[in-house]
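Final report, closing paragraph on structural work. Over the funding period we assembled a curated collection of sequence-structure pairs, and we close with a single example.
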Amino acid sequence: MSEKRTVIRGGTIVDGTGRRAFKGDVVIEGDKIASVLPSEQAPRDGYAADETLDAASCLVTPGFIDAHAHSDAYLILEPDAPSKISQGITTEINGQCGGSAAPRYGEARLSSDWASLLGEKLVWRSFAEYRSVLEKSRPAINSVQFVGHNTLRSSVVGYAPRESTEEELNKMRSLLDEALDAGWYGITTGLIYQPGKYASKQEVFALAKAAAGKGAFYATHMRSEGDGVLEAIDEVLELVKATNVRAEISHLKTSGERNWNKIDAVLEKVESAVDEGLLLGADRYPYCAAGTDLDIVLPDWAQAGGVTAEIARLSDRQTRLRIIDEIEKSGRDWSKVMIGGTWTQKTKAMSGKTIAEILQGGASSSAGEIVCEILEADECRTGAFFFGMSEDNLDKILAKDWVVPGSDASLRAPWGPLGADHPHPRAYGTMPEFYRRLRKLGFSLEEAVSRMTSSPARRFAIRDRGVIERGKFADVIVWKEDEFASTSTYLKPHSFAKGMKAVFVNGILHGKGRENAGRFIER
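Its predicted structure, as stored:
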């Protein structure tokens, strides 16, 4: 039986290589690109095609690659991946910031939103079991999977605030080897989160060295992106020199206004390392607010032991008063901390409001009390946005050709269990915003597209994707440049990007009753 042939006809082809755009046709057979023909070479009598898509007035480009995503669990819950498909993402790199969906041994817990929403679908423990569940869900997009260091550590050590023993480190290394042998891409760290923040440099270096020994990768949410950002970069470079691992810095930034003036020094350090071949580069979302859990504002000691321990401390009156006192003394600007996803009727009305705005409403007498009330009601699952970055610095970061787009977001949908959340707008708008900013900075159409396609594909050795060429996988999108825009905002995040006309993943046009065609991409 012959493979289905689809012709995307008459579009402006931007092939992802950086070469000049041209009018032409793309022919897809099965899951591969069969030919790419300039219009003057197209057959006059047309093609013997099962399906023809008129792409006149549209761009035809490789599908975008989200270099930093968190959809590990949600691909099982909402496999159509609507927030990603709507912005042209055909491949995600998941398992970031030290957190992955597998393995689940010992004390290891998924993030609270993943676990509570998955419910009875949460049936795996091993890497193989997770992959089986993922593939049976038939996701719409491709997934590259990293192993989270926090997930490994909690599986072996738990959440205790201490260094690992030699035996425990060997167990973590064994689990990492198991994943790498099964096709996982490498290891990520989230060194501001529990329990990764308790890991010594020696522990992280040992695991990075194990990854390097199998030709795998390392991506890191560094120990600091604010006051200690320069020292944190030095630690990454020390790790790379000691292990020879291929490394990426996650969501590069300088957080906190007092650190904005460090941007030139940050970029100089990273760029020098890229030029020397020490670093692959960095990823970044095109927004100036970070998004993470609200409990990150608690004192370090109050976070120790994970969510269960946090809840217990908030329930104890004297301990809670101590927490409130330390939060008040932190000097944080509460006009720049906005409540995101919440989990109860009591807290739902606070989504989209800053702590300062809630204070003005007279609900509590202090920011510390509000934070504790919200966290207690939501059982420490509350999301938050932190407006601590500079627009000028963001432009300086995006101007570097070694920076690729990473949403730092799970997929979302405006309906079902995911529609009740209040996500960061980057979940819906990263790609149009990244593209818009690059064009505003003076990058050509061809340069902007290559940054979003072939650059991350080359960086992470994602074979046969990221370009429109004969024999490559047919991850192809058709879109209108003048319409491509984000409609998602911090107050109303559940809103799809505009301008995407067609999305092909492994040769299958998404939607219209067609079967999802995303794949687990092995290293």
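The mean pLDDT is 95. Residues 292-386 form one domain. We thank the funder for supporting this effort.
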